[in-house]
Amino acid sequence: MKLSIITVNYNNKAGLQKTIDSVVCQTWRDFEWIVIDGGSTDGSKELIEQYQQHFAYWCSEPDKGVYNAMNKGISKAKGEYLNFMNSGDCFYNEYSLSYFHEVYNPSIDVFYADADFIDEKGSLVYEMRLPDKISANFYISGKNISHQSSFIKSSLLHIHPYNEKYELAADGDLFFWLLLRKYKFSHINKVLVRSDIPGLSANVKLAREEVMCFKRENLSILPFRYKLLNSYFFKRIRTCFIG
Fold this sequence. Notes:
This protein is an alpha/beta fold. The chain has one domain: Alpha-Beta Complex (Spore Coat Polysaccharide Biosynthesis Protein SpsA, Chain A), CATH 3.90.550. Helix 7 packs parallel to helix 8. Strands 1, 2, 3, 4, 5, 6, 7, 8 and 9 form a 9-stranded mixed β-sheet that branches. It is globular, with a radius of gyration of 17 Å. It has 9 helices and 9 strands. It has helices spanning 13-24, 44-50, 66-76, 96-103, 136-140, 154-159, 170-180, 204-220, 224-236, and strands spanning 3-9, 31-37, 57-60, 81-84, 90-91, 110-118, 124-128, 150-153, 185-196. The model is unreliable at 224-243 (pLDDT under 50).
């Protein structure tokens, strides 16, 4: 099996229904689907039970936050690549996974695609259009890629799972860690995801603080030339965007 889709949810039944609708209609079907619910009380558990025939694994129990739930999903996944399509996030159309299948190459560590970010009224807020090549400098300059539209080798997430000390930026920490170590990223030049906004990253102040923290920590453990870059970065760049 090439792909595991992991969906995390907590008291977001309407968003979960949107996500379910976007996954069950996919034309490419060689994936397993894992749903981790944090013990919802809004009817989400009943919705999951309604669609449970589509899931390889699901649970509804308290957790320690979204990244703890995502790590729980990682521990259950059997796919070569993992995609995190959390409640409220949707594949752009029924062909989104087919586009991933078309470019599949086991030598690539992370596939990343473009994404649209939508507000609660369904209006387009931001179009994330990404370059074909990215490096650690992409993150140092304050940019980000979308974890919802990324496909990450599961072996890498066992080496470096999401850092649960972060409430909002553990996905950025993961990608920055991988880029600094020269893992292979490949761009899928298509919009694969429509993602809800505001979401977790709506707390802009905390998001910025966490981004600065993971950049500082990742750069500090690398060779001297990166430590110089680290010093320059924190003198010259004070704000950053998290997607």
